[in-house]
Amino acid sequence: TSGRRMLNLYGPAEFTIWATSSAALRPDRPVTIGGPIGGAAVLVLDDRLRPVPAGVAGELYLSGSALARGYHRRPDLTAARFVADPFGAPGSRLYRTGDLARWVRDTAGTLELEYVGRTDFQIKVRGQRVELGEIDAVLTRA
After folding, report:
1. Whole-model pTM?
2. Quick one: pLDDT band at residue 1, thresholds 50, 70, 90?
3. Longest Cα pair distance anywhere in the chain, in angstroms?
4. How many separate domains does the chain show?
5. What is the CATH number of the domain that holds 47?
6. Is residue 3 part of a domain?
7. Residue 56: what pLDDT?
8. What phi and psi values does residue 71 have, to the nearest 5 degrees?
9. Which of 9, 34, 40, 90 has the greatest number of CB atoms lying within 10 Å of its CB?
10. Keywords on this record (predicted)?
């Protein structure tokens, strides 16, 4: 509709919901998750926490002031998902999103993120995280 813009926003609850924003979506362009918003740092890393080149998929990591401290009374999960930031100041952390992404160039040559998929079997149903492995385990026992 004339005069209206639609954006694609990306972010997990661990980063106060919103970490990236796309440019205004256009019907003649692929939908991306854009680039980091102010105060957010977004990295695409390999399994050794090394940046991957543009066009190569890797796990998406987030850091910045909006990053949660961890999970309430879940030190095991906090340790697995909130890792030391090898590029940041001492004590800074990165959040492992479990999402796969790659940097791609738009028509103007600007880098933006393309969402590729998940590293696990987690999906969302009406905004709630669902682990497909847990469903499979329950059904296997039945």
Report:
1. 0.85
2. low
3. 54
4. 1
5. 2.30.38.10
6. no
7. 98
8. -100, 135
9. 34
10. Phosphopantetheine, Phosphoprotein
